[in-house]
Amino acid sequence: MRTSYLVRAAGAAACVLSLMLLFAGCGSGQVAWTRVLDLGGDDVAAALDGNGSELVLLATSFTGERAAWQVARFATDGRELWRRQYRQGEFSVAGDIALDSAGGIYATGTSRIDGREMCVVVHYRRDGIIAWQRALAVGEAAAGRGIALGPDRVYVTGWTRAKDRRELLLVALEPDGSTAWTRNWRLGDLAAGERLALDPKGDIVLSGIAGTAENPDILLAKFNPKGDTLWTRVYDGGGEDRPGRVTTDPYGHLLATGTALTPEGPRCVILEYHPDGELIRRAAYGERATAEGHGIAVTPKGDVFLCGSLVAETERSLLAFHYRPQATSVWERSWRTGADVAGADLVVADDVFALGTVGDRDRGRDVALVRFTRPEAE
């Protein structure tokens, strides 16, 4: 379970601190099990969550011009417990998923209904039966990208569009799915929320996109439970920057990952901020490694893990690693198949569970769930 003044982060990619990694336990020998799911179409992984004994994953299966999202529940030993397909209207594309303390599942995404794109939120019971679903018609079009659960609210982020502009969307829902409040902000032509989390005080933290289509930046923001803006920050790596997941540690520090596209190739970036928005550090995976950052998770002890892709000339491999600021030695795990593997998300329990997409559009893609072992000495 996971648990509008713009300040541009100083410096660019050249100022990013590099993590010196001594790779330990790299390769398939550190994989406990893998599950590759063919969902019946061209399948793309979206999100993963877990509670220590079970995992829930969300993916989209594309078939021609149609799409449906699928939710699957797994035991941590790799047994698939059930799978459900969801589609409303012409298509439904997956965004994010969250698991509550009772085993209920909340998913968000985008459906086109009668020609109009809407942000959709679905609440599943533990057995996979839909308890309620809501289509949020905001602006001319809207999309759901991220979801997080509070003690008495469900928070959703994405984007809404009016005429030629796109605005960041943040919505709070009551436990029955009714709307508590809606907020939207214009932060450039391409503004969108990507992922959400709650800090220990119940404030909302968000990763998203700000800027223009020519130069999108990573947006990080914090809101109180009423939707009021506490602070916003923008990371500009000098080129195209793509947000990944955001989370907080037990002390309320915000941690986020993403991908900065540089002339030398993609860099997996890690961003850390104090609860008040002061920058702690910016780091990049590896001294010169080309990699993408997508998922980030923090354990109750404060250990930080990330998921993404190692990028080679012809293919990518699934990557998970333990992040320690300014470390000279951390462990990583990777999963290579000979085909392209794009990392999507991760969950950390006794081991590290990583979700990705394997294959390519020409030959078809499937969803991969991989359990990486953690060293006992950690």
Write a short abstract of this structure.
The chain is mostly beta strands and 378 residues long.
What would you call the structural class?
A: mainly beta
Instruction: Tell the overall outline.
Output: globular
Calculate the mean pLDDT score and round it: 90
**Which strand order spans the largest sheet, edge to edge or round the barrel?**
1-19-18-17-16
Distance between the termini: 22 Å
Q: Determine the number of helices (DSSP H or I, runs of at least 4 residues).
A: 0
Number of domains: 1
Looking at CATH, the homologous superfamily is TolB, C-terminal domain
Q: How many β-strand runs?
A: 30
Largest sheet: 5 strands, mixed
CATH class: Mainly Beta
Run of helices and strands: EEEEEEEEEEEEEEEEEEEEEEEEEEEEEE
The second-level CATH architecture is 6 Propeller
Low-confidence sequence ranges? 4-28
Radius of gyration: 19 Å
Beta-strand proportion: over 45%
Task: Output the CATH topology.
Answer: Neuraminidase
Share of residues in helices? under 10%
